[in-house]
Amino acid sequence: MTDHACLVVRAGALTTVQDLGRPGHAHLGVPLSGALDAPAHRLANRLVGNPETAAGLETTLTGCAVRMRRATTVAVTGAPCPVTVDGRPAPWGAPVRVPAGAVLDAGPAVRGLRSYLAFGGGVTTEPVLGSRATDLLSGLGGDPLSDGAVLPLGAEPAAPAWADAVPHPAPPAELLLPYRPGPRDDWFTAHGHRTLATGHFRVSAASNRIGLRTEGPPLQRARDGELPSEGMPLGALQVPPDGLPVLFLHDHPTTGGYPVVGVVPARHLAAAAQAVPGTPIRFLPLHGA
């Protein structure tokens, strides 16, 4: 077994191996998966000198801790959290040299939900369909991490990109979600569309990597029944029978039979990955090009 690896000492509430996902397989029923906060994932990789496609860890709320088998450069980004190396404070949002045998602990998120750990050389678990991402819906890419798991790492880059300061957006106090109406916006009344554009919604605690669920006023339907299953894109605002929109995230099903009232462009989804339960949501309709 390679000595360039790390041992999971504390897996946390939900920690998974993620990269930028496996695009191009929706016709096979395979979701994109990958890091929900892709900008934070890319930043962590840049800080340790990896290509942005390298795999790392995505934590959820409570963070995780790993013991390095060999001295390795590590960076933690995404949701701000306390970082320690063998109990001593270390910087968040900057590359940290972790000695062999030392434990790097990314603690509970102070704000936001998901932190990202990048290791020099990246996590090199076996790829599936070109990606190492853990897909919670299909099970591709393996299971969430558990205590005692050993993760192989690749060869470290020669020169990590040391940085004095790293700009990164804070987790949202209010989640703004622009959306393009359709393809099934005609399934909703004018009142339903006003409700979506002006109603007071919040992030539900039932949200996960598959979809961000909402609490708030239900959207009024213009017709009854459901659709035959049709393709569902990333960012779809699907409306189940309770009338409360669900924003499809990276592990979403690729087909569905509930109407989609609109689609949120992918560039706005990173903020959704960091919105804690109870965060206010405003949906902003986009029209034209």
Give an account of the 3D structure:
This is Biotin-dependent carboxyltransferase family protein. Keywords: ATP-binding, Hydrolase, Nucleotide-binding. The protein has three helices and 20 strands. By secondary structure, it is mostly beta strands. It has a seven-stranded mixed β-barrel. Strands 7-6-9-4-1-11 form a six-stranded antiparallel β-sheet, with no helix packed on it. The radius of gyration is 20 Å and the shape is elongated. 45% of the residues are buried. The mean pLDDT is 94.
List the helices and strands and how they pair.
Blueprint: E1 5-10, E2 16-18, H1 38-47, E3 56-58, E4 64-68, E5 72-78, E6 83-85, E7 88-90, E8 96-98, E9 103-106, E10 115-119, E11 150-152, E12 175-181, H2 190-198, E13 201-203, E14 211-215, E15 230-231, E16 236-238, E17 246-248, E18 255-256, E19 260-263, H3 269-273, E20 280-285
